[in-house]
């Protein structure tokens, strides 16, 4: 895997005769970074991910990798999917082989790679997603969280530069969410750029290097504490303010936190608190 910059400029996407889902939307996925994509149901998050992956051709605008436009030809899409992989929200939309190893090997085999290269890629992907112990198990015998990680492993086996994950933590219990996030951390250490769509503003705040909110058929992108601290934007996007920013701001008003960037999760918040309360005189 190597770092590439995936971008979209001026995307216009509509279905049938209705109002466009996206209208002039622009997004830049910085190489080697973690980007959280947020928005209300029906805002266009999945549509944007499908455009970025090449699965959907916009009416107008362009998707580029390192400035080179995506061509919606068989050859162009084949090349693009070796750089960018999309994992859908429902793993059962992607898992169809008899066993985990067979499913993960599907993409590399379609590239025409040598048998040993395919074996190496499958082993690497299963290890990174911590599902190597499941290699011989039938996919229908996996838990929902395991199926999600196996679906991601199938994309990782293609060794893309950018992984697009549509709601990878949706429907998971807290333990499975922690396992999924640990797997994503290993992927970034392995030179993957990860884009994750989510409704969870608290998760986005603590996980992402940058966030992008799909609202009013466009995209607002920036630093997590700036974008997720913009109450007017969050109201337009029908999203709530992350609890860490709300609590941190109140603690700062009370003189318990110094001025500066607010903590983004519980551990950082606790670390920023003084050892003992200040005594007012």
Short recap of the structure:
With 281 residues, the protein is of the alpha/beta class.
Protein described:
The chain is of the alpha/beta class. It has one domain: P-loop containing nucleotide triphosphate hydrolases (Rossmann fold, 3-Layer(aba) Sandwich). It contains eleven helices and ten strands. The protein has helices at 45-53, 74-83, 100-110, 115-128, 144-156, 174-189, 201-207, 224-227, 231-236, 243-253, 266-272, and strands at 6-13, 22-29, 34-38, 60-65, 68-69, 84-87, 162-166, 193-198, 210-215, 218-222. The strands form two sheets. It has a six-stranded mixed beta sheet with strand order 6-7-8-3-9-10, sandwiched between helices. The chain has a four-stranded antiparallel beta sheet with strand order 2-1-4-5, covered by helices on one side. The mean pLDDT is 90.
The order of strands across the largest sheet is 6-7-8-3-9-10
Name the structural class. alpha/beta
CATH architecture: 3-Layer(aba) Sandwich
Report the uncertain regions.
none
Write down the CATH class: Alpha Beta
Overall helicity: 25-40%
What is the number of domains?
Answer: 1
Output the CATH topology: Rossmann fold
- Helical element count? 11
Elements, N to C (H/E): EEEHEEHEHHHEHEHEEHHHH
Task: Please state roughly what percent of the residues sit in beta strands, choosing from under 5%, 5-15%, 15-25%, 25-35%, 35-45% or over 45%.
Answer: 15-25%
Average of per-residue pLDDT values: 90
Major sheet description = 6 strands, mixed
**Which outline best applies?**
globular
* Radius of gyration, CA atoms, in whole angstroms: 20 Å
């Amino acid at each position: 895997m190597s770092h590439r910059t995936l971008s979209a400029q001026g995307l216009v996407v509509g279905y049938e005769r209705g109002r466009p889902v996206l209208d002039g939307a622009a997004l830049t996925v910085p190489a080697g970074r973690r980007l959280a994509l947020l928005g209300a149901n029906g805002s266009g998050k999945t549509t944007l991910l499908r455009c970025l992956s090449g699965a959907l051709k916009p009416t107008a605008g362009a998707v580029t990798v390192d400035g080179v436009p995506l061509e919606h030809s068989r050859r162009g899409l084949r090349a693009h999917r070796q750089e960018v992989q999309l994992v859908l929200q429902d793993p059962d939309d992607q898992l169809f082989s008899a066993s985990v190893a067979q499913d993960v090997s599907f993409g590399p085999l379609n590239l025409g790679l040598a048998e040993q290269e395919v074996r190496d890629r499958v082993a690497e992907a299963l290890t990174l997603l911590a599902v190597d112990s499941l290699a011989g198990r039938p996919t229908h015998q996996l838990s929902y969280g395991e199926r999600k990680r196996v679906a991601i492993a199938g994309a990782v086996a293609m060794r893309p530069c950018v992984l697009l994950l549509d709601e990878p933590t949706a429907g998971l219990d807290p333990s499975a969410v922690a396992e999924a996030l640990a797997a994503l951390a290993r992927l970034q250490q392995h030179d993957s750029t990860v884009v994750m769509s989510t409704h969870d503003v608290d998760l986005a705040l603590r996980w992402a290097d940058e966030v992008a909110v799909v609202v009013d058929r466009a995209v607002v992108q920036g630093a997590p504490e700036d974008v997720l601290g913009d109450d007017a934007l969050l109201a337009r996007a029908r999203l709530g303010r992350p609890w860490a920013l709300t609590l941190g701001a109140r603690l700062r008003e009370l003189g318990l936190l110094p001025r500066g960037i607010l903590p983004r999760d519980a551990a950082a918040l606790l670390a920023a608190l003084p050892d003992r309360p200040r005594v007012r005189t």
